[in-house]
Amino acid sequence: MTYTLPNLAVGTSYTLRLHFNEFYWKLAGQRVFNVTVNGTVVLPNFDIIAAAGAPETAIVEQFTVRPIRTATSRLRSRVQRLTNRRSLRWNSTANL
Q1: Distance CA 43, CA 61 (A)
Q2: Structure confidence by residue, pLDDT tens digits, 31-88
Q3: Do the beta carbons of residue 20 and residue 43 sit within 8 Å?
Q4: What one-character DSSP code corresponds to residue 10?
Q5: Number of C-beta neighbours around residue 39 at 10 A
Q6: Could you tell me the domains of the chain?
Q7: CA distance 52 to 56
């Protein structure tokens, strides 16, 4: 799953907030994944339940990032599942 924020100013820092909540699985370790931003892993082996302390508990991970230089100057966030193929939904925001 990839999420792209296009048309950002190169050389400018942005606050990227990734919002997570696990509604399907109930135990830590049942869904683990990597999150990358512009090709750099920012959350390796991320487990929402372990990070939040309980299932069905929201958690926000925040990063200061800079867009990569492309035709549209963008931030690209990507989730790569390591365990479980069940559907994953997430929300990403950036202060523009």
Answers
A1: 9
A2: 999 999 988 999 999 999 999 999 999 999 999 998 887 766 677 777 776 776 555 5
A3: no
A4: T
A5: 8
A6: 2-84 (2.60.120.430)
A7: 9
